[in-house]
Design a protein that fits this description.
The complex is a heterodimer of chains A (363) and B (345). Chain A has 363 residues and is mainly alpha-helical. In chain A, 55% of the residues lie in helices and 7% in strands. In chain A, a hairpin with a 6-residue loop joins β2 and β3. Helices cover 70% and strands 0% of the residues of chain B. The chains are: A mainly alpha (363), B mainly alpha (345). Chains A and B meet through α1 of A and α2 of B.
């Protein structure tokens, strides 16, 4: 029949006229993005092991990595990582090759900026990982990449939340780690009197509950003997918490972190969002100071934790030979002197044994 | 409601005579009023039509069409018109200025003249001519001259090509257009459009003359320079054909005239084949509007469905298909009428 094709065409247009429009009114309606959508390339600082595979994989030299050597662990770590998105062709090679899933594509696709600098993403080492002496990353660049290390932040947040919880409902939480009610009472008193103890306990509760129980027990024992130690006064804690409360809550609290924190404190109180606490900074400084002191006057300090002079000598030699041991010891000295003593004794014992095995040869 | 406008005109005429005007003077004044009304309606109509066309083409292409200005974007055309009105009036230096300026005016005047004979409702033709249909076709073909004027005056190859195509197309399609209407005229025995409408009180001529309707519709699409027969404009080949050099309000006048023509031809189709203003319940002038708009929708539907026909195909379709078919239709109609008469007697 003549005109059959014409009628068919008319049918098609008529059908389409009543179908749903595929137009998307973009700024008002947001597009649906698949999981695999490749938006902006992002970087998760704490996961990065500075292996540099991504840089080798990149066909356009988009990525640059600057590393430093961690004094404590002797490992290569990331100082800064930059993604120059203007050259990125979103080929996925870097994401594919990354062994720790540090690099990933976000769903953010509005990447336009009005200058070339704006398109470059720079991730700096978070300030808490910068040694006390050095200044943190330049503030201008730090602004561009706020809160790069999520895991570090997470931990700190949890600890902070735990602190609040401990102050609010000490009995409930301490009951979990201390056997008797009397102990709980002593511990809570101790804790309220000394900010340092509170911080330490909170940290231990998050990190290692068994250890927390042990430490708490020790503290209680000590507290029974000598009464509450004349530690830091409460106003410091209050001030610290006030600062924490003032801080605008970061937009992206990882839900996992929040839930974990709540679990730990038994659902009491909201998780307190926070960055680096003052106690933490203080402690780092103390550790640094202790390190210097240990190197300067090893005998004096080591004598406090080691019984024999011979042991002190061995230990100081060890310490001077190995940076890692020095750092560890300094940290322990600040945090838990008893433990430091134990650890030092163990190190010395091992050293002695080694020397016996090798016929008294010194390394 | 039915005689709203007729009564209004009569009352006005009586009042004017009461004021001391001679019957001729009052008639003249009334005629001026009627033309003003027609021009207003046309302008408003074009505003709606442009919006409708953009909306419909959008829907057919699964787009939204204009939707920013007002509800469903219905004020978009008003904004466009304001923009066109405020644009600089550019006349290229090498043009024939007089013809260049008169062409759009001529075009719009011819288009408006078409409305003189169309019955817009019961007793609502401005001039109820005896040869209304003849008048419509002859005036309608004048638009070609306007396009030729524009193309020639522009002194531009595209414009001239577009104009020449337009002339060729118009001449070719004027013949089947007129021939296809002859069937209707033969049945009615009159060229008066009101009489043709009256003759359809029992049965619409689309049923009696389906072939005539199809040939008329195809020829009319070509006459209107609408897709798929929009060779004279053919944006992709000739930029804008005869209208290339026009801008601002002069160009808008061509645009206006084309849509005016579309409405006029649709109204004619409704009058000749779909019973004109006749219809149940609603007033006659609403019926003609409904029918005209439905036919215009079909014109738009065709335009946004079919691709443009090549020039030689266009000509061969007219001369080799439409003209023989319409001639045959006249023959069959004539024989049919004689048989019908013989059966009755």
């Amino acid at each position: 029949m003549i005109g059959k094709g014409l009628l068919k065409g008319l049918g098609i247009t008529a059908k389409h006229a009543f179908e749903r429009e595929i137009t998307q009114q973009y700024p008002e309606e947001r597009p649906f993005l698949q999981d695999r959508f490749r938006g902006s390339l992002a970087y998760d600082y704490p996961k990065c092991i500075a292996c540099g595979l991504c840089i080798k994989a990149c066909p356009n030299n988009v990525l640059t990595l600057e590393t430093y050597k961690d004094e404590d662990t002797k490992k290569k770590k990331v100082d800064s990582y930059s993604i120059d998105l203007q050259y990125c062709l979103f080929c996925n090679l870097c994401v594919e090759i990354c062994p720790t899933d540090t690099l990933y594509f976000t769903h953010e696709f509005e990447l336009t900026t009005d200058n070339r600098e704006g398109i470059k993403k720079i991730y700096h080492r978070p300030p808490e990982l910068v040694p006390a002496g050095k200044t943190a990353a330049e503030p201008k660049q730090a602004e561009k990449t706020p809160s790069t290390s999520e895991t570090g932040d997470k931990r700190l947040k949890q600890v902070e939340a735990m602190k609040t919880a401990l102050l609010k409902t000490p009995a409930k939480i301490l009951g979990k780690i201390l056997p008797t009610e009397e102990d709980v009472a002593i511990m809570s008193e101790l804790m309220q009197g000394d900010d340092k103890i509170l911080a330490k306990l909170a940290q231990l509760m998050i990190e290692d509950r068994d250890k927390a129980a042990r430490v708490a027990a020790a503290w209680v024992k000590k507290g029974r003997v000598s009464g509450p130690p004349p530690g830091e006064v409460a106003p410091v804690a209050v001030a610290a918490q006030g600062r924490v409360a003032e801080r605008p809550s970061p937009g992206e609290i990882p839900p996992a972190a929040a839930s974990v924190a709540e679990e730990e404190e038994g659902g009491t109180g909201p998780p307190a969002p926070t960055g680096l606490s003052e106690a933490e900074v203080k402690r780092l400084k103390q550790v640094e100071a202790m390190k210097t002191a240990l190197l300067k006057t090893p005998a004096k300090i080591l004598a406090k934790i080691l019984p024999a002079e011979k042991d002190v000598a061995i230990m100081s030699e060890l310490m001077q030979g190995d940076d890692k041991i020095l750092a560890k010891l300094a940290q322990l000295m600040i945090e838990d002197r008893d433990k430091a003593a134990r650890v030092a004794a163990a190190w010395v014992a091992r050293e002695k044994k080694l020397h016996q095995g090798e016929g008294g040869k010194t390394p | 409601m039915e005689n709203l406008f007729v009564n209004l005109a009569r009352a006005l005429s009586v009042w004017l005579q009461h004021l001391g005007l001679s019957p001729f003077g009052s008639d003249l004044l009334l005629l001026v009023l009627q033309w003003t009304a027609i021009i207003l309606i046309i302008t408003l109509n074009v505003l709606i039509l442009v919006w409708l066309e953009r909306k419909i083409s959008g829907f057919m292409q699964e787009r939204l069409g204009p939707n920013r200005l007002g509800p469903f974007g219905c004020f978009q055309t008003i904004a466009d018109t304001l923009k066109l009105l405020t644009k600089e009036d550019i006349i290229p230096s090498q043009t024939d200025r007089l013809i260049f300026k008169t062409a759009p005016m001529f075009f719009i005047i011819v288009s408006v003249l078409l409305y003189a004979v169309i019955p817009m409702g019961r007793d609502m033709a401005v001039v109820d001519l005896n040869v209304g249909l003849f008048y419509f076709i002859s005036v309608g073909s004048l638009t070609t001259i306007a396009i030729l004027m524009a193309g020639w005056a522009s002194n531009n190859k595209w414009s001239l090509l577009g104009a020449m195509r337009s002339v060729a197309q118009m001449i070719s399609y004027e013949i089947p257009l007129a021939f296809s209407l002859l069937g209707v005229v033969m049945i009615t025995g009159s060229l008066n459009l009101s009489a043709i409408v009256a003759a359809q009180s029992h049965i619409w001529f689309i049923i009696l003359q389906p072939v005539a309707f199809v040939t008329f519709f195809i020829a009319a699409t070509a006459e209107l320079n609408r897709g798929p027969f929009d060779m004279p404009e053919a944006e992709q080949e000739l930029t804008a054909g005869a209208f290339t050099e026009y801008s601002g309000m002069r160009w808008a006048l061509f645009f206006l005239a084309e849509y005016t023509n579309l409405a006029a031809v649709s109204a004619l189709a409704a009058t000749l084949f779909f019973g004109g203003w006749q219809g149940p319940l609603l007033p006659s002038w609403i019926w003609i509007i409904i029918k005209t708009y439905l036919i215009m929708l079909v014109f738009m539907w065709l335009k946004w469905t079919f691709p443009r026909i090549r020039m030689d195909h266009l000509m061969s379709l007219s001369w080799k298909v439409l003209i023989p078919v319409s001639l045959l239709n006249i023959l069959v109609t004539g024989v049919g009428i004689e048989i019908f008469k013989g059966m009755r007697w």
